[in-house]
Amino acid sequence: MTKVLMLASFGLEIVECGGALAAHVAAGDEVQAAVLMARSESRDQIAQAAKILGIDQVDFLGFPSGEYTTDAPWKEKVVTLMRRVRPDIVITQDPVHAQHDLDPDRRTIALLYPESFALAGRDWHVEECGGYEPHMVHTIYYMTPEEPNCIVEISEFFHLKQKALEVLTYQLAFSAQSIQQRASVDVLRYVVPEYESMKADPVALGLEFHTQFDKALALQHGLAGHSGAVLGEAYRREGPFVIDRLLV
Length: 248
Fold this sequence. Notes:
With 248 residues, this protein is of the alpha/beta class. The protein is built from eleven helices and seven strands. The protein has two domains: 3-151, Rossmann fold; 156-228, no CATH class. It has a seven-stranded mixed β-sheet with strand order 3-2-1-4-5-7-6, sandwiched between helices. The longest helix has 19 residues, at 202-220. 39% of the residues are buried. The mean pLDDT is 95.
């Protein structure tokens, strides 16, 4: 059995990686999730979305947005999680993509995570990190990477991603507001033909936006591309794949 940890920054990432996570659950693997930052208003919704995907355990690390660093006390929180959960695979954000993302904390996270992963496997601050034995994180996958090197077929689980997305009403309303500030009404009508009738309901509008985005990405890495997948979820594995022989 493989133990998988989804290390989300804000919570939505659990759903964005929902196809791969649900596939691991269906295969009998142990899947847990942790969220670095999540507003109190959204935590129950994040946990509910994770439950739909088959994930029973979600840890909320309580990092304050814009107010933490990569110094030792913050690393200790992530290292403690790694040593306690002891995952075989960690899924987290792509540090390359993060360098160009102007969302708060993305670039700090891109430094904090790998530094913490490295320290988790060494004899570092054992007592300060709950007394857990060191644990080396051997396999890291970056979600939504700019240059993926593997695609997960998620056709069987795409409906679960949609169902999980629907409960994130706090995030959906925030997304609708943000997207409306970034695009003209004409563009929004093109993306969502029912925009005029939906614009007064930010949750419904946000859901439609995210549904369109998820389908576009899944098709880009599936039928619209050359991966061989139908609906694909893209990842970049850290480091080279080690195989016994060349695969078909």
